[in-house]
Design a protein that fits this description.
With 178 residues, the chain is an alpha+beta fold. The chain has a domain at 32-153. The protein contains six helices and six strands. It has helices at 9-12, 67-78, 80-84, 88-92, 103-109, 135-146, and strands spanning 32-35, 42-47, 56-61, 113-117, 121-124, 132-134. A six-stranded antiparallel beta sheet has the order 4-3-2-1-5-6.
Amino acid sequence: MATLMNVNPEMAMGPGVGNQEGAIEKKWFKHLGELGDESKAKVVVVYRTVPGEPNNCLVVGTKFLPDVYHNALMRAVESEGGQAEDELGAYLGRQTFPDGTNMLSVLHNDNYIKKFKTKDIVMTYGPTDEGKITLNKLNELIAKEKGVKVQDLAIKDDTPKATETKKEKKTDAKETTT
């Protein structure tokens, strides 16, 4: 039988283990949150507000995604481009999943994007309760900082509206003028 070693956990891991060279530093990313209910299910916030509905947001529940989509979405969220965007949806519209499909289109068309009240989403930017804020409060802070109202935070549709073209009446080839 093997002899048990008396290992002092303080020596093995030490109180400053996270500060050692090669230690993995935990990073906190924008666009990540959780449901405010008892489930605390993890979500990715695609749009912090909905046009015309400033108290609603659009999120993706990450546990419902197939692994290949989940991993690609998380890489997009954690990427420099994803972190640079105010609204993650704008970035996802320019990204593709490994199978070549557009991320935002797949998430929308396959019904992974769900609408929630902003007060029901808790944004996480730290490991403690001080590192959490409800999305409605975060939106209020962002709006105040930008000097706008919360409803003005929603992405505006910049695509030009299709104008109706006037159809000219074509003459029938059988008709002749005399």
